[in-house]
């Protein structure tokens, strides 16, 4: 990446004069000088837009929280109804992410290693939960799993109720998290050199041993990234859950819904307090995902 | 039937190598995948079609001729029509700065761009309510000047911009990074101006990932529910987008109309998936051409 120091004076070279402002930003920020123009303009616009749309509004949420008294904040975030909603949201998200980790790994393996009729179609369909609006997913899953639904009617005689129970929340969260694990693990499996597996096999390892001792460790960072991404997405999910959960306080009420309920009752303080908790959790998960991706990237680069 | 499946499965070269799984294991794994995906992806798609057409094609079409449905469709198109171009310009600017230059705290900027993805949609809506709502920081000033943002169209557009913020930048950055700066530098040396380089060299080389980002951004913009729901106020015929209209119809037990509008959104997502596959196929075949 190191460039020739002879071409570091872009103004002379390209005849395009730079403004003083641009010279200053480049001198301060750039680690390496570049002949390409437009750094100041591009970065300036990106930062302005980022601040206006994302950073200032998010900062507003924290500032609003700062105006709450500590007692008020604590009461809002530890209210029994709120705590019940955390338990459901985080519990169901965790189980959904685990289901997706197991099935996502199997699906990624099947898509990367086997060929069978309809594979291309299946591969394209994986992203459906990303593309399908959450409200559509919500009403559809409710129709599938309600007592008279396509699948719900066969579960009912067994005493299994899905729609309007915590189990329904789990189904919705599994649906929306489905693509994450598949899409992070699949490329790693595709890039994996089959030679190391052949080496393991020729050294006498059984297939099972090769998979658990050779392939799984290589896939692990990507699997964890996918798992955490699915979990993070599920924690914040609203649209697909509200229809299937039935929204009973203490039983099937998720935290994002509680925020909306508080807003509708003009309890801005309560809504803000819970939103801050959610936001801090999302930030922590985002940092974790970034760390995992970095680890995963380093592992791949070392291969 | 079994023999055709057998022959298809055995056609893969790995079946004979030392590292394949036994045939029965393959069959079980493929079966498990098909069952899981069938249950979670195919059954819901089929349900949407069946429920939407339950009372015949006439009732299906009638659901779209309702004035509320028409205004919901218009508002959705408007919100996406504003959000996607703005995020496109941002995506290009951010990707240019991040992919073409090495600067301090670059990783921080990349993480900040991803922020809207990790924020719950409900919280995304709430931050604008706290900023522009009547109780919010700018609320009294806005009320004085008779400007409505929350429970009005600008709020819906803002919330849509927020939730679709990272899509295009995220598609462009890795692609532009792997392409490097050589072509742009060559163009500059040959005397092209900065904008000429951007239009004639950079843009053609990233067109497929750009298109892919726009498709994803548009799908999310048209389908967003949570964030828009918080800022919309659910005024029928005024601040209802298509997903919100689906919710209202569903809660009124008007299932046929709800699934009819839902089917429109679902077909949009299927078109998105097809476009995505086409773009992937197109860009990989171009990459192969370049190598050859």
What structural keywords apply?
heterodimer; A: 303 residues; mainly alpha; 15 helices; 76% helix; flat; disordered N terminus; B: 292 residues; 14 helices
Task: Provide structural commentary.
The complex is a heterodimer of chains A (303) and B (292). Chain A is mainly alpha-helical and 303 residues long. Chain A has 15 helices and no strands. The relative contact order of chain A is 0.11. Chain B is mainly α and 292 residues long. Helices cover 79% and strands 0% of the residues of chain B. In chain B, α6 packs across α8 and α8 runs antiparallel to α12. Chain B is globular, with a radius of gyration of 24 Å. At the A-B interface, α1, α3, α5, α6 and α7 of A face α2, α4, α5, α6 and α8 of B.
Structure annotation, total helices of chain B? 14
Span of the ends, CA to CA of chain A: 21 Å
The fraction of residues assigned to DSSP E strands of chain A is: under 5%
* Total helical elements of chain A: 15
Structural class of chain B: mainly alpha
Envelope shape of chain A: flat
The strand count of chain A comes to: 0
**Quaternary structure type:** heterodimer
State the separation between the terminal residues of chain B, measured CA to CA: 41 Å
Largest sheet of chain B: none
Give the overall average pLDDT of chain B: 88
Q: Flag low-confidence runs of chain A.
A: 1-16
**Strand and helix order of chain A:** HHHHHHHHHHHHHHH
Radius of gyration of chain A from the CA trace? Answer: 25 Å
Give the helix proportion of chain B (percent range).
Answer: over 70%
Structural class of chain A: mainly alpha
The gyration radius over C-alpha positions of chain B equals 24 Å
Task: Give the DSSP E fraction of chain B (strand runs of 2 or more residues).
Answer: under 5%
Q: Provide mean pLDDT of chain A, rounded.
A: 86
């Amino acid at each position: 990446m190191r460039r020739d120091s002879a071409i570091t004076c872009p103004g002379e070279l390209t005849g395009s004069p730079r403004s003083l402002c641009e010279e200053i930003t480049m001198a301060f920020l750039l680690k390496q000088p570049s002949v390409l123009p437009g750094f100041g303009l591009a970065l300036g616009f990106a930062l302005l837009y980022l601040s206006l749309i994302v950073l200032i509004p998010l900062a507003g949420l924290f500032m609003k929280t700062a105006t709450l008294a500590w007692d008020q904040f604590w009461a809002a975030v530890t209210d029994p109804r709120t705590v019940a909603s955390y338990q459901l949201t985080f519990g169901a998200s965790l189980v959904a992410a685990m289901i997706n980790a197991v099935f996502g790994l199997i699906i990624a393996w099947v898509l990367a290693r086997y060929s069978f009729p309809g594979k291309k179609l299946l591969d394209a369909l994986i992203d459906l939960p990303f593309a399908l609006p959450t409200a559509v997913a919500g009403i559809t899953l409710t129709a599938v799993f309600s007592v008279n639904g396509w699948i719900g009617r066969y579960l009912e005689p067994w005493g299994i109720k899905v729609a309007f129970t915590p189990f329904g929340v789990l189904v919705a969260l599994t649906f929306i998290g489905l693509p994450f694990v598949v899409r992070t693990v699949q490329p790693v499996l595709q890039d994996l050199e089959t030679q190391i597996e052949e080496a393991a096999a020729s050294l006498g390892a059984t297939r099972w041993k090769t998979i658990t001792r050779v392939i799984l460790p290589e896939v692990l960072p990507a699997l964890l990234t996918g798992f955490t991404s699915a979990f993070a997405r599920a924690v914040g999910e609203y649209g697909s859950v509200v229809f299937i959960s039935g929204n009973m306080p203490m039983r099937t009420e998720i935290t994002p819904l509680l925020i909306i309920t508080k807003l509708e009752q003009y309890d801005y303080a309560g809504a803000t307090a819970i939103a801050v908790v959610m936001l801090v959790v999302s930030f922590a998960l985002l940092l974790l995902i970034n760390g995992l991706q970095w680890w995963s990237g380093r592992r791949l680069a070392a291969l | 039937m079994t023999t055709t499946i057998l022959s298809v499965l055995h056609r893969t070269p790995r079946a004979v190598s030392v590292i394949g799984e036994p045939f029965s294991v393959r069959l079980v794994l493929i079966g498990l995948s098909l069952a899981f995906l069938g249950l979670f992806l195919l059954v819901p798609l089929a349900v949407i079609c069946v429920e939407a057409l339950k009372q015949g094609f006439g009732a299906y079409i009638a659901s779209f001729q309702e004035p509320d449905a028409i205004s919901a469709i218009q508002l959705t198109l408007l919100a996406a029509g504003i959000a996607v171009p703005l995020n496109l310009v941002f995506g290009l600017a951010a990707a240019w700065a991040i992919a073409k230059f090495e600067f301090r705290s670059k990783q921080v900027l990349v993480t900040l761009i991803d922020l809207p993805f990790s924020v719950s949609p409900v919280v995304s809506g709430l931050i604008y309510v706290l900023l522009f709502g009547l109780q919010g920081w700018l609320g009294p000033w806005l009320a004085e000047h008779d400007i409505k943002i929350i429970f009005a169209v600008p709020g819906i557009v803002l919330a849509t911009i927020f939730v679709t913020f990272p899509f295009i930048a995220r598609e462009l950055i890795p692609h532009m990074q792997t392409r490097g700066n050589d072509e742009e530098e060559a163009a500059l040396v040959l005397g092209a101006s900065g904008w000429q380089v951007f239009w004639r060299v950079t843009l053609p080389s990233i067109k497929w990932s750009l298109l892919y980002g726009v498709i994803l951004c548009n799908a999310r913009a048209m389908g967003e529910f949570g964030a828009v729901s918080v800022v919309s106020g659910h005024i029928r015929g005024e601040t209802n987008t298509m997903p919100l209209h689906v919710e209202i119809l569903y809660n009124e037990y008007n299932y046929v109309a709800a699934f009819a509008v839902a089917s429109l959104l679902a077909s949009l997502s299927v078109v998105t998936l097809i476009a995505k596959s086409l773009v992937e196929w197109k860009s990989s075949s171009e990459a192969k051409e370049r190598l050859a």
